[in-house]
């Protein structure tokens, strides 16, 4: 029998609100300086030795399923086209596009000048990533005259970006590289200045906006805006109508904007309206001196208004276009010169609403359960627009909608090599009554022939935080589960916004446990309806969804055969108590601030790490990234160590750490599938163990 790694205990005393608790694995926490040091110190060596021991243990436990894991991985990448190209778009006299060449991990960005056929390579990410363990492009912006390229990239996995410049006329790359960026780029009209945001090296908050002139040293860039409130994120972009450079500021509950005419880069930014507590809004310049505004003031699900430039600070002078509707959530707005498109959500389902001077209509779709959103629309003056459509059975498809005749033109559908027949699969929308009477929507897919007799395996996925909704999306890799008899379900638990803003409010701060209860109640309902049974039911979630898995593991340890917790946020109390940890201060409105005793006690009551008990636990696979800046690697590492010390069962508990990656896992087109193949193989390993 293999012996699992045993982490050393070094009691670390923590006192909060007159209470003392002991963190035996606090020693696993390393600073960025320690992780990045050329010569690791003794603590770093011990931490790495423990993580590597856990990796080796995972490899040994999964060794009997190594062939299956490789088979699943080959299936996944085998469904990817050897050569894949994006839908091209026109901009500034060029056609732009990107493609993957056979066997390559990263895309190549190119353009073709109007009237010509010769391709101009702008960026080959394979060359840029050749000597790096991790590489990710964040932003790619060509200057308005088409002669300069600025791009931001991350080569550490920490989401701290660098910015590089290419002269597209001479094909030369500038020796100047800006560091510590957030990824945003907004060119001014003069083609010489651009605006970018920087990241705080400790908290990783994007808090400063700079104006940069080509050729300058980074220290010569001019600071044009600094956000002092640590609960806000800040970014910068150029408006769709090209008229403004816009700085946005956003916290969980408030937002505001600063604007500058794009043809006056040396000018002063002006505030759209004074910031107000609990007022979230977004703006869409109409190109004619006015602004469309989505606002939640006295309208939790948002309303649509319009203002002239002179009246933006005076809300009383804004004109109402669409009032608040309790059953319809306004998610987004895309403004064109002669029309605009609203993304709405009703009863969990997304819709596109087209409004012109003489038309107000919803786009219709044949499937009952689907997802639809606006695609890349680069031209403000276009008479058609692109949108993305898909479902749990239909591959993602890019369409162009033509206003003149209402025609929907398919531009590209995600190719599934080897073939995929949507009619061979069935999708459903269920509604499950939670313990407090709330109706939780569930999206479900399985291969036809699936028997609802309680004998089939099912993977239940959820996220449930930040108002982020997991829509019923298509996944080619998921076919490796469905074709082997699994059903797959998404529980749209509270904390997301599937049913509007109130659905989010019911799943944050002092209502956070609703997310956990919803997931457990959905799981039990699926078993009662005989889609599966507790012996063959699995749960999965990542990041805040990993917190969900950790809480469920403690609260309902017998409800699942196994859980997969990817980059899980499981050390909630300690992380939220330390403002020096990246992004903590921005999260207080999500989870609460433990400096306040009521929030402290509520978080303490569910934080997975503090609530590990001497009890039975189902099988658990935990994954993390050593360079993760969103959920630090030590959170899952400490949680696994605590579980190993206290749990009373012999069920499998595995920790896999990608020592090169961050929050999003491995970079590259193929590498990410290796981790997913491990997760899928883990599910089958649990089932095989029961059959042995």
Automatic annotation (TrEMBL):
Keywords (A to Z) from UniProt: Hydrolase, Protease, Serine protease
Domain Peptidase S9 prolyl oligopeptidase catalytic: 473-688
Pfam families reported in the protein's UniProt record: Peptidase_S9 (PF00326), Peptidase_S9_N (PF02897)
GO biological process, alphabetically ordered: proteolysis
Domain of life: Bacteria
InterPro entries registered for this protein in UniProt: AB_hydrolase_fold (IPR029058), Pept_S9A_N (IPR023302), Peptidase_S9_cat (IPR001375), Peptidase_S9A (IPR002470), Serine_Peptidase_S9A (IPR051543)
Molecular function GO terms recorded: serine-type endopeptidase activity
Domain Peptidase S9A N-terminal: 5-414
Family statement drawn from the similarity comment of this UniProt entry: Belongs to the peptidase S9A family.
Name recorded for this polypeptide: Protease II
Organism field: Saprospira grandis DSM 2844
Native organism taxonomy: Bacteria, Pseudomonadati, Bacteroidota, Saprospiria, Saprospirales
């Amino acid at each position: 029998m293999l012996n699992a790694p045993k982490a050393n205990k070094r009691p670390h005393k923590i006192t909060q609100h007159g209470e003392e608790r002991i963190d035996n694995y606090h020693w696993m926490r390393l600073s960025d300086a320690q992780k990045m040091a050329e010569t690791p110190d003794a603590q770093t060596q011990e931490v790495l030795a423990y993580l590597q021991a856990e990796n080796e243990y995972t490899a040994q436990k999964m060794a009997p399923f190594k062939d299956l894991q490789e088979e699943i991985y080959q299936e996944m990448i085998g469904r990817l086209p050897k050569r894949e190209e994006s839908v091209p778009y026109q901009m500034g006299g060029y056609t732009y596009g990107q493609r993957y060449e056979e066997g390559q991990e990263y895309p190549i960005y190119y353009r073709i000048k109007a009237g010509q056929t010769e391709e101009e390579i702008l960026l080959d990410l394979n060359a840029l990533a050749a000597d790096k363990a991790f590489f990710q492009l964040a932003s790619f912006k060509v200057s308005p005259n088409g002669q300069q390229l600025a791009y931001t990239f991350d080569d550490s996995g920490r989401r701290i970006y660098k910015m590089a410049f290419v002269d597209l006329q001479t094909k030369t790359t500038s020796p100047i590289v800006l560091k510590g960026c957030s990824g945003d780029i907004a060119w001014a009209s003069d083609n010489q200045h651009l605006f970018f945001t920087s990241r705080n090296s400790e908290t990783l908050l994007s808090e400063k906006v700079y104006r940069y002139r080509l050729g300058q040293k980074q220290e010569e860039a001019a600071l044009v805006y600094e956000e002092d409130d640590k609960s806000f994120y800040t970014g910068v972009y150029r408006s769709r109508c090209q008229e403004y450079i816009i700085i946005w500021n956003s916290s969980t509950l408030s937002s505001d904007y600063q604007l500058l005419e794009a043809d006056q880069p040396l000018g002063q930014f002006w505030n759209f309206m004074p910031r107000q507590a609990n007022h979230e809004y977004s703006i869409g310049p109409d190109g004619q001196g006015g602004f469309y505004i989505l606002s939640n003031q006295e309208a939790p699900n948002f309303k649509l208004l319009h203002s002239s430039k002179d009246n933006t600070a005076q809300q009383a002078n804004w004109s109402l276009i669409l009032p608040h509707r309790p059953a319809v959530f306004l998610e987004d707005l895309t403004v064109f010169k002669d029309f605009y498109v609203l993304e709405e959500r009703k009863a969990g389902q997304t819709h596109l609403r087209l409004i012109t001077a003489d038309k107000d209509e919803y786009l219709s779709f044949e499937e009952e359960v689907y997802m639809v959103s606006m695609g890349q629309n680069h031209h403000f003056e276009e008479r058609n627009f692109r949108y993305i459509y898909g479902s749990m059975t239909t591959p993602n498809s890019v369409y162009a909608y033509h206003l003149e005749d209402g025609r929907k033109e398919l531009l590209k559908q995600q190719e599934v090599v080897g073939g995929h027949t949507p009619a061979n699969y069935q999708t459903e929308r269920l509604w499950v009554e939670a313990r407090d009477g709330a109706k939780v929507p569930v999206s479900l897919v399985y291969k036809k022939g699936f028997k609802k007799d309680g004998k089939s395996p099912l993977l239940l996925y959820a996220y449930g935080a930040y108002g982020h909704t997991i829509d019923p999306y298509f996944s080619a890799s998921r076919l490796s589960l469905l074709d082997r008899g699994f059903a797959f379900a998404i529980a749209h638990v509270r904390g997301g916004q599937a049913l509007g803003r109130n659905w989010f409010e019911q799943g944050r701060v002092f209502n956070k446990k609703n997310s956990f209860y919803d997931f457990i109640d959905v799981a039990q309902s699926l078993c009662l309806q005989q889609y599966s049974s507790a012996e063959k039911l699995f749960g999965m979630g990542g990041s805040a969804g990993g917190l969900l898995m950790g809480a469920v593991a403690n609260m309902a340890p017998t409800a699942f055969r196994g859980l997969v917790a990817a980059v899980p946020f499981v050390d909630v109390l300690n992380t939220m108590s330390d403002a020096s940890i990246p992004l903590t201060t921005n999260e207080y409105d999500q989870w609460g601030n433990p400096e306040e005793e009521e929030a402290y006690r509520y978080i303490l009551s569910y934080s997975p790490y503090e609530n590990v008990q001497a009890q039975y636990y189902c099988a658990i696979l935990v994954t993390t990234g050593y360079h993760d800046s969103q959920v630090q690697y030590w959170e899952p590492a400490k949680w696994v160590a605590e579980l190993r010390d206290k749990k009373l069962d012999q069920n499998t508990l595995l920790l896999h750490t990608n020592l090169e990656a961050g929050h999003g896992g491995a970079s590259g087109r193929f590498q990410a599938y290796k981790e997913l193949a491990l997760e899928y193989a883990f599910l089958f390993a649990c089932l095989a163990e029961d059959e042995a």
